[in-house]
Amino acid sequence: MVNLDIHPRGRHFLQIPGPSPVPDRVLRAMSLPTIDHRGPEFGALGKKVLAGLGEVFQTRHPVVVYPSSGTGAWEAALANTLSPGDAVLMYETGHFATLWQKMALRLGLRPEFLAWAGDDLVLPQAPGWRRGVQAEEIEQRLRRDTAHELKAVCVVHNETSTGVTSDIAAVRRAIDAAKHPALLMVDTISGLASADYRHDEWGVDVAIAGSQKGLMLPPGISFNALSPRAMEAAKHAKLPRSFWAWDEIVAMNADGYWPYTPNTNLLYALSESLDMLLDEGLADVFARHQRWAAGVRAAVAAWGLPIQCADARLHSPVLTGVIVPEGVDADALRRLIHQRFDLSLGTGLGKVRGRMFRMGHLGDSNDLTLLAMLAGVEMGLKLHGVRLAGSGVQAAMDHFAAQAAPAALDTFTTSQRR
Ligand code: PLP
Fold it and tell me: Which residues contact 154 (CB under 8 A, 6 or more apart)?
């Protein structure tokens, strides 16, 4: 039984790839009194967060906000744009792509699931779970679909189960090269606000996101960013929908309101996190995550363990998947690290259960919290009897010390000038 009476000293290290650590500023914003969701203050809050979301998704088109987890926004994307029996092209990059495909089946769609066809010696049970979407395969499949039966292409931007990103602009180019009218739907649940995501520039029709990752909020809000083509498709789509229907929400959002009760206090939190992200500037937010990710990868390389992502161009800035040596149970290792150091790591999901663990580097983090995470993992690996080639903590310290974070340099030079 879980002992809920424990109050460990210091902070718990929540290093799963979402829910991510929530900044104190955001937690404080959530503690404001709940207000009338039909009153004037709420309308101003609603308009503010919708405008900020447009900046974060990099879109001029509507962003729909749901009081739900990301799974709801997956369903909303499909239910608003498609009709029973529609064929959709999906791509198996990992566990979340697989769950989305299962959802499409349950909704009465006909998903076709493409997967990387090569072999992988390190992870033979899931070779495609080390690679991103192969845009050329999508192009070839769409070229063969001369009757345009495939109504949508659905891909995951940042596979949270593997730590591999996919090149969304390349998928758009593939659809265009095949001159195919399919809608492009992108799950950026764990990409948004940590990895560069450009809704309008990349020609995405529906994006799906959630609150508990790069937006640094607790779970409970999800998003669909739309395109004019997606909104047009919604006028003719026949899958049943009511709670998820975009039309009423988009209409009421014009004044900052929702057709049903929104989660007011999470929207206070969203307003605060949008201020934090936009004050920093998206380019700096993305560079910060890249720098953190490179430091964590330096540690894994020093340990001599394989990183799950096999394509150096596609390493996730959000999380790093680490494959453990054959015979080591990654979940037993995670349990030991949790018990000894109050540090939570992501489990291996689906086909890679027990073979890998995931380290999150997102949310309210900094160089020292990440070094603490790496120290906990390094101690745990040794205690579990895993032979390491060298010290990952030292490698990450060298990385972080050699390249100061831009924000740290700014603060330092400003305080020296005073
Ligand atoms: N898609 C991706 C890429 C995810 O990482 C997750 C959750 O971690 C989901 C979908 C499902 O979202 P939720 O658990 O918020 O319903």
Answer: 77, 78, 88, 89, 90, 91, 100, 101, 104, 111, 185, 186, 187
